[in-house]
Amino acid sequence: MNEEKKIFVIFGNPVEHSKSPQMHNAGFENIEYNAQYIKNLLEDGETIKDVFLEKGYEGANITVPHKEAAFRNADEVRGLANEIKAVNTYINEDGKIIAYNTDAPGFLYAIESFGEVKKVLLLGAGGTAKAISLALQQSDIDVTVLNRSEGKLAFFKEHNIKCSTWDNFNAQEYDLIVNSTSAGLKDDYLPCPQEILENVLQSATSAFDCVYGKVTPFLDLAQEKGLKIKDGEDMLLYQGVLAFEYFTKQNATEEVIEVMRKALKGE
User: Fold this and answer.
1) CB-based contact 246:35 (threshold 8 Å)
2) What confidence tens digit (pLDDT) does each residue in 20-79 have?
3) pTM of the predicted model, to two decimals?
4) Handedness of CA 60, 63, 66, 72 (dihedral sign)
5) Which of 6, 67, 130, 230 is catalytic?
6) How far apart are CA 165 and CA 143, in angstroms?
7) Is 130 a catalytic residue?
8) What are the pLDDT digits (tens) for 195-228?
């Protein structure tokens, strides 16, 4: 008798742009794992646990804007996610929802190609920024968070991470500028005022945008200034590989990673 196909999912709003299904389905196929990965548009993040259990999902990835709601609704949170207070991966363990954050290690893998990074300016203060800032802090990399308003900065202050609003920002010299906001995903906005960006990009060597699959206005400006640029594709790949290992309970081989990378690129 055939074993029932396991269903995995990505929750988000919007979610139609997500390339996670093609990446994970290619990985499942490569290891002959009986599973399918689909998209689930979720309007209200606080319903995530009920929807996950009602639909019988085996595991899930969570994207903007639901990572913090997913944290609050999990039965058990493991690892660095407890500090980040945002999760991007759910696993169904005997009806209990176990949650992880694979964004943090995924980001560190993604910036390795920039070489040594000592000082980072991180734009935005959402769930992704929390993950990235703690990952950088744990790696002894100096990080400053810059956000439009004061409201979301309490988290960073609690973790002794330097942070500022646009209004009271005193720029320094940074190696790497990171955009963790959704600016440029569906629009042509910059993640902060152009005069601030122009200033910090002058001395930086690299720019990274968590948005993937396009050169955003932020990356475009960085490229004009002669910086090395990178979109969020590698971060998506590596956080996906780590989630894939939780989903399948198997280590991803180099072959699987390459298959997932190609699927992400649509090759």
Assistant:
1) no
2) 999 999 999 999 999 999 999 999 999 999 999 999 999 999 998 999 999 999 999 999
3) 0.88
4) positive
5) 67
6) 14
7) no
8) 999 999 999 999 999 998 899 999 999 999 999 9
d(CA 71, CA 75): 9
Query: Residue 124 is encoded by which pair of tokens?
Result: 């935005």
**What strand order describes the sheet that includes 6-12?**
35-41, 6-12, 59-62, 89-93, 96-100, 76-77
Residue range 220-251, pLDDT digits in tens? 999 999 999 999 999 999 999 999 999 999 99
Residue 210 makes CB contacts below 8 A (sequence gap 6+) with: 107, 128, 132, 178, 179, 180, 232, 235
Task: Determine if the peptide bond prior to 105 is cis (ω within 30°).
Answer: no
Q: Strand 96-100 relative to strand 89-93: parallel, antiparallel, unpaired?
A: antiparallel
Q: What are phi and psi of 227, to 5 degrees?
A: -85, 155
Neighbours of 7 (CB within 10 A): 16
Element (H, E) at 82: helix 81-84
Q: Give the residue among 131, 126, 1, 7 at the shortest CA–CA distance from 61.
A: 7
Q: pLDDT value at position 64?
A: 86
- And the tokens for 63? 């994207």
Q: Please say whether the dihedral angle defined by the alpha carbons of residues 114, 119, 122 and 127, taken in this order, is positive or negative.
A: positive
